[in-house]
């Protein structure tokens, strides 16, 4: 059976992310960190909004493509350094996936849509980008928020309430409802804080 353009592109994104030297563990299995992240993103998309087109599926899967190649510590540890890193990182992701889609033969219109989404352009105004943002935040809550909390025991309750509120505000109302409807696994130790943050 001939591979579809979507299957070819996903395989190429996976091959790129398989080079990640950083390792995460899921169910006692080691994964290249960004390969596991991309699969979690695609899984969440299937749960949240399964009937989407190729451009959305590709952007969701490629959001962190080869993220390790642009490390945060390569930039000054300042607010300005953080924003410069983040802006250049989004551009790096967008350009990296665009090259793959060009090689596969996707039309320019689809490539530009993917670049907009992966480049995080138009959150709240571009429905595609907002969907990616919803998926990213749902994945963060389900898979990464507890680990983040455990790495920052110095954060007090107010700091955590602010982090959760910022995450919550990035999401659409549909994304928020999905999170509260039992459709994702909330990190159990943080459930009281999450409920307190979103209630206020």
Distinctive features:
200 residues; 2 domains; 9 helices; 65% helix; 4% strand
Fold and architecture overview:
By secondary structure, this protein is mainly alpha-helical. The protein folds into two domains: 1-121, no CATH class; 126-200, no CATH class. It has helices at residues 5-17, 33-48, 54-62, 79-104, 108-118, 127-150, 157-170, 173-180, 191-199, and strands at residues 23-26, 29-32. Strands 1-2 form a two-stranded antiparallel ribbon. A hairpin with a 2-residue loop joins strand 1 and strand 2. The longest helix has 26 residues, at 79-104.
Helix and strand arrangement:
Layout: H1 5-17, E1 23-26, E2 29-32, H2 33-48, H3 54-62, H4 79-104, H5 108-118, H6 127-150, H7 157-170, H8 173-180, H9 191-199
What is the straight-line distance between the termini?
53 Å
How many structural domains are formed by the residues? 2
> What would the principal axes of the Cα set say about the shape?
globular
User: What is the β-strand count?
Assistant: 2
Structural class: mainly alpha
| Proportion of helical residues | 55-70%
Task: Order the strands across the largest sheet as they lie in space.
Answer: 1-2
- Order of helices and strands, N to C? HEEHHHHHHHH
Short synopsis of the structure:
With 200 residues, the protein is mainly alpha-helical.
